[in-house]
Write a structure and sequence with these properties.
The structure is a single chain. By secondary structure, this protein is an alpha+beta fold. It has a domain of 117 residues: Jelly Rolls (Sandwich). Helices cover 48% and strands 24% of the residues. It contains nine helices and eight strands. The protein has a four-stranded antiparallel beta sheet with strand order 1-8-3-6. Strand 4 and strand 5 form a beta hairpin. Helix 8 packs across helix 9. The protein starts with a helix and ends with a helix.
């Protein structure tokens, strides 16, 4: 984690020790929920190993059934929060769930804010990470609004083909905004082209 953060901008003297003292470590099994709707996202998670997903549940107007909508997948060297809940420290609507066995570090919102105030240079690291995720979300929103399902699938193949091997198809379909059947057809066409 510190190698990753230090590659963004050198970490000030004393910062590593302070973060080590404040941060916790946990290992979680697949399907473990780290956050549920109605809870406040109090922790920022750093993924050492494994894969997390963020999702919310909405009611499908056609069927009347609840439907999961995946918003992001976070893996090695990613940080993970429920954005609105974390930054406003108010109850959120998202779930955070482990998809694989995970090794995570985590830090309490208030502790991270103290670190930012004490080590002002570390704010640069935070800004770079925030910009990285804002750009990813902007790309995702743009793709959902402007591209059709097959085009979104092609973008995913180009940008992040590893997800195809690590994420169950039903979650990928939800993330891409297509039905599982449509995703199966796209995957089948991709295999035939090989």
């Amino acid at each position: 984690m510190f190698t990753y953060l230090g590659a963004i901008y050198p970490l000030q003297e004393g910062l590593v020790e302070e973060l080590t003292d404040l941060a916790g470590y946990m290992e979680v099994r697949p399907k473990k929920l780290l956050l549920k709707p109605g809870e406040v996202c109090k922790y920022l998670y750093f993924v050492h190993e494994g894969l997390l997903r963020c999702f919310y549940v909405r009611n499908n107007n056609k069927t009347g059934e609840d439907q999961e909508v995946c918003t992001q997948f976070m893996r090695e060297n990613d940080t993970c929060v429920s954005v609105r809940s974390y930054y406003t420290q108010t109850p959120g609507k998202e779930f955070i769930q482990a998809l694989e066995p995970c090794k995570l570090s985590y830090i309490l919102f208030e502790d991270l804010e103290k670190v930012y105030r004490k080590y002002m240079d570390f704010n640069f690291n935070g800004r770079v990470l925030t910009a990285k995720y804002l750009l990813e979300w902007a790309d995702q929103l743009e793709n959902i609004r402007m591209l059709k399902g097959p085009e979104r699938f092609a973008q995913l193949l180009e940008r992040d083909p590893e997800l195809l091997a690590r994420v169950p198809q039903k979650y990928l379909a939800s993330y891409l905004g297509v039905t599982p059947t449509s995703l199966s057809r796209m995957l089948s066409r991709k295999r035939k082209k090989k």
